[in-house]
UniProtKB/TrEMBL annotation:
HAMAP family xref list: KDGDH
Enzyme class name: lyase
Residues annotated as catalytic: 144 (proton donor/acceptor), 170 (schiff-base intermediate with substrate)
Positions contributing to pyruvate binding: 57
Gene3D superfamilies: Aldolase class I (3.20.20.70)
Organism: Kocuria dechangensis
Name the UniProt record assigns to this protein: Probable 5-dehydro-4-deoxyglucarate dehydratase
Superkingdom: Bacteria
Single GO term (MF): 5-dehydro-4-deoxyglucarate dehydratase activity
GO biological process, one term: D-glucarate catabolic process
Keywords linked to the UniProt accession: Lyase
Length: 308
């Protein structure tokens, strides 16, 4: 636990698939620690490079700061000795700093700074926000470029100059021009990870832009398939990647796009479909309808489990 320096953590994370586990809830939508521990133990049984607790797929945005602290602590206890656990730094600056302190206390190895809520934000404000988190911790810090938190190449460079523990840039926007600028300016000073919804969809082209890894939400329920996909991407095996896109990923995103917020709900649906129920999603998300779940199960049964 927390035995890697930020630089060692970056070197470790950049060459393996990254897991973003769901947070298990019981029938009252309360944190289900037993189910969560079981899920994490299963996830950590495969060779993933890092496990990001209470991230986007982990519904970090629907957890209280106390719940985030608990979820991260449980993740470190359960799997921290085999895989580095990273925690979210979410919400307003004070809350993100508090998350950072809690993560350090729990023994997490790194932080993912999620976009602040609601308000628009520009470069100086975003820089101050991330600086506050970096200054509050010795852990390695990754920013998530998405929604209202769009970091220019120059902002990223200033943060990298000022904070040795700023180690990574995660992208959830997919602007080729922006990514090219960020990579051209910052190069190997950082590592880069893809974080667009269903990141597999973009993994091969983004590799060329310097994104050597990505957050796999589908790893939650089809880990072998997700790892095989990652190996194909890193081998730049276009035929194998295209086959898997056609067989599973593209039909999967057709179901995902039926309802807003399904990007997370479909992952909990996938767990139900493979017999590893982690409960429902919290509002403002909604669960898959019975029909959508049946379609997902049929897709998994036909194209993933049989070929695994
Ligand atoms: O915080 C998160 O869960 C994400 O980064 C989003 C997903 O993991 C996304 O990359 C995906 O859906 O594969």
């Amino acid at each position: 636990m927390a035995n890697r320096t930020p630089q060692e953590l970056a070197a470790h994370l950049k060459d393996g698939l990254l897991s973003f586990p769901v947070t298990a809830f019981d029938a009252d939508l309360l944190f289900d620690e037993t189910a969560y521990r079981e899920h994490l133990a299963w996830q950590a049984g495969y060779p993933v490079a890092g496990l990001f607790a209470a991230g986007g797929t982990g519904e970090g945005f629907s957890l209280t700061p106390e719940e985030i602290a608990t979820v991260v602590r449980v993740a470190v206890e359960e799997v921290g000795s085999t895989v580095p656990v990273l925690a979210p730094a979410a919400g307003n600056t004070a809350q993100a700093v508090r998350n950072a302190h809690d993560a350090g206390t729990a023994g997490a190895e790194g932080l993912l700074v999620l976009p602040p809520y609601l308000t628009e934000a520009d470069q100086l404000g975003l820089e101050a926000h991330v600086s506050a988190v970096c200054s509050a911790t010795d852990l390695g810090v990754i920013v998530y470029n998405r929604a209202n938190a769009i970091y220019s190449a120059e902002t990223v460079a200033r943060l990298a100059d000022r904070h040795a523990n700023f180690i990574g840039f995660k992208d959830g926007v997919g602007s080729i021009e922006h990514l090219t600028k960020v990579f051209a300016k910052n190069g190997d000073r950082l590592f880069y990870l893809g974080g667009l919804p269903t990141a597999e969809t973009f993994a091969l082209p983004l590799l060329q832009l310097g994104m050597s890894t990505y957050s796999s939400a589908m790893y939650n329920f089809v880990p072998e398939f997700a790892l095989e996909f990652y190996r194909d991407v890193r081998a730049q095996d276009r035929a194998a990647v295209t086959d898997k896109l056609n067989r599973f990923v593209l039909p999967y995103i057709e179901i995902r796009d039926r309802v807003k917020g399904y990007g997370v709900s479909i992952v909990k649906g996938g767990l139900k479909a493979v017999g590893r129920d982690a409960g429902s999603v919290r509002p403002p998300l909604q669960d898959l309808t019975a029909q959508d779940l049946a379609d997902l199960k049929a897709l998994i049964d036909a194209h993933v489990l049989q070929s695994a």
